[in-house]
Amino acid sequence: MADTAKSAKLTIGEQTYDLPIYSPTVGPDVLDIRKLYGQAGVFTYDPGFTSTASCDSTITFIDGDEGILLHRGYPIDQLASKSHYLEVCYLLMYGELPTAAELEDFENTITRHTMIHEQMHNFFRGFRRDAHPMATMVGVVGAMSAFYHDSTDISDPRQREIASHRLIAKMPTIAAMAYKYSIGQPFVYPRNDLDYAANFLHMCFSVPAEKYEVNPILARAMDRIFTLHADHEQNASTSTVRLASSSGANPFACIAAGIACLWGPAHGGANQACLEMLKEIGSVDRIPEFIARAKDKNDPFRLMGFGHRVYKNRDPRATVMKQSADEVLDLLGVENNPILQVAKELEKQALEDPYFIDKKLFPNVDFYSGIILEAMGFPTSMFTPIFALSRTVGWVSQWKEQLADPQHKIGRPRQLYLGSTLRDYTDIESR
Ligand code: CMC
């Protein structure tokens, strides 16, 4: 924790309390309220954590007003255009860009951990065929705790590292198997001669009956989707991983908790919800009707793929994702795709609408990622699993950082209690 020379004064009644202020390397100052309850007997109130820093971290920085996203200081647009996913994984996990030898070693390690324990195949077969792949992933990743006992001792840094490698390596295999199972096709084993993204496409789209050539442009687009989702600071699923881990839970249980949280439509489920919305809109002439619904306070409908808790400017990931969407659609010759036409026109109309301008609601990363994934041939149900496998490196990096921090303690928020005061139990006959 940074030393502080500054402090703020909080006056409650006659008493004044000094609250230390910490200055980060970039971003707003942070008030330290840890001793407030002990000294003043009050809690702070911040549902949704809109003004609360839950930890200190050196991994990712976001400036939502300026639309900036940095991993270990490097801007996301540079990483997306010059780097690739496994190099970004190394950067997130270890803090620096790797040398050529370090990268080779890391890629080798990840590649050689991609197979899952053969007995885990039985787990998949226990699910209904129509199970959502996210349901399967929550279950199977949680079940990894039962298969990899030699990397669940969280007090051992080497075991933490091995668990992290296993999770990054096996998550594409698990996501692809969840998909194959849902469409009734045989599981496809990983291929060590392919890179991370190409191998994932191979495991999803190849079948034993014929040869499958991975298109390098699609593999590059897939890699970019992974890179753009790799980490995003203390978002809901990452905070869930940290909270689960704060009790000392094993890494596989913590990441399964993160996957469960990511599933919701306000978070990682937005890409699926966005594409379903675009299909429901169906044609450009129906856009005004849906924009009117999004603005109507009495209608719960929201424009999926718009708005963000932190970005009140353009989501920098969306800018890169939009370029990628153009490239992929160009390659696949689907530039006249009606969904893309609806997406482009919806984006234009929303960005010109005073409601969206005033509330600073811009398209987010999920607005474009769904379009790319659909064009590649993924069903909408696979969109969130792909987000989950990309975010795994962010989760494990944040988890490792938390466990290495000597200050970490169990997460235990307090509450503003508004329920009944003490009352006596009434016998059932008297109620
Ligand atoms: N469509 C219509 N109105 C919206 C939208 C939207 N997509 N997003 C926010 N608003 C309005 C909202 O009704 C509210 O209006 P008012 O101030 O009049 O009550 C105002 O904008 C602020 O919204 P909020 O819900 O207080 O903002 P939040 O920071 O709590 O929510 C959000 C952020 C992402 C949950 C929200 O913008 C949303 O539901 N968006 C659609 C889902 C989506 O695309 N999620 C993906 C996020 S990016 C991927 C990720 O990182 O997980």
Automatic annotation (TrEMBL):
Gene Ontology process terms (BP): tricarboxylic acid cycle
Xref: CDD domains: EcCS_like (cd06114)
Entry's Gene Ontology molecular function annotations: citrate synthase activity
PROSITE patterns (UniProt xref): CITRATE_SYNTHASE
Cellular component aspect of the GO annotation: cytoplasm
InterPro entries (UniProt xref): Citrate_synth-like_lrg_a-sub, Citrate_synth-like_sm_a-sub, Citrate_synthase, Citrate_synthase_AS, Citrate_synthase_bac-typ, Citrate_synthase_sf, Citrate_synthase_typ-I
Residue positions of the active site: 308, 366
Keyword terms, alphabetized: Acyltransferase, Transferase, Tricarboxylic acid cycle
Domain of life (superkingdom): Bacteria
Pathway the protein acts in: Carbohydrate metabolism; tricarboxylic acid cycle; isocitrate from oxaloacetate: step 1/2
Record's catalysed reaction(s): oxaloacetate + acetyl-CoA + H2O = citrate + CoA + H(+)
PANTHER family, sorted: CITRATE SYNTHASE
Entry similarity comment: Belongs to the citrate synthase family.
Name this polypeptide is given: Citrate synthase
Lineage: Bacteria, Pseudomonadati, Pseudomonadota, Alphaproteobacteria, Rhodobacterales
